[in-house]
Amino acid sequence: xxxxxxxxxxxxxxxxxxxxxxxxxxxxxxxxxxxxxxxxxxxxxxxxxxxxxxxxxxxxxxxxxxxxxxxxxxxxxxxxxxxxxxxxxxxxxxxxxxxxxxxxxxxxxxxxxxxxxxxxxxxxxxxxxxxxxxxxxxxxxxxxxxxxxxxxxxxxxxxxxxxxxxxxxxxxxxxxxxxxxxxxxxxxxxxxxxxxxxxxxxxxxxxxxxxxxxxxxxxxxxxxxxxxxxxxxxxxxxxxxxxxxxxxxxxxxxxxxxxxxxxxxxxxxxxxxxxxxxxxxxxxxxxxxxxxxxxxxxxxxxxxx
Length: 305
Ligand SMILES: [Zn+2]
Description:
- By secondary structure, the chain is mostly helical.
- It folds into two domains: 8-247, no CATH class; 248-305, no CATH class.
- Helices cover 46% and strands 8% of the residues.
- It has helices at 115-118, 123-134, 152-168, 173-199, 205-239, 249-262, 266-278, 284-302, and strands spanning 56-62, 69-75, 82-83, 92-93, 103-105, 112-114.
- Strands 1-2 form a two-stranded antiparallel ribbon. The protein has a two-stranded antiparallel ribbon with strand order 3-4.
């Protein structure tokens, strides 16, 4: 499958960009920044409930590639309330899925990246983006000044564009892996939203058929991007310095162990967990989580899952 399909409308041909991590091996190491992000419950159209837009603001930023200034949406971090994350660290918040807003995309030239990576690029990377993205890029929408909610399809499209850009600029493996992980999380969130809609009484039979189709696609893509992210992080730990995508070694070890568990790679997951449980630098919080994971691995192996 072509993971980057859908970018044709931007004028970008993703067919020759199949292997996400291919050009990375000889790359020199650079520093990464730290992570934030988040996640919501499917928005319910109840009366007094805050809207996603209540937690958003606009900020003007300058594109490091074409030098034009444009407005991007950011989350008002002080106002959001965290909920328990998924075990693989997917962050979740009340009323808003902050993950959707973690991409900056220049509407003029097409340069797109996760917020944390957006401004940081070398002159070589600027040149690569100009040649590989800007020269082909076709703006798709009117440049608007309003604060409006981004839906999952659009959010996923923005992340895929970011992934395409990361491949063109020969970004670090961890940047691409992290982008894949977040795309996978977005599909998971979309699946949750669609499943919740299916449960509703007002969901018509026609709508159910269309949701089922969307769910099939979303489930396939969720796993495909999860696999890519896993493969990428495994490569990143052998070639990059910590912090990797903002994570210290213990956090990333834990993330990889959980991902391995979710992908039914129980041996890898067990090894990761054992390392964490005997680590002298891991916090008791992460050790507790590792211990819980260990129990689940044992159960899964016992039940032959
Ligand atoms: Zn630009």
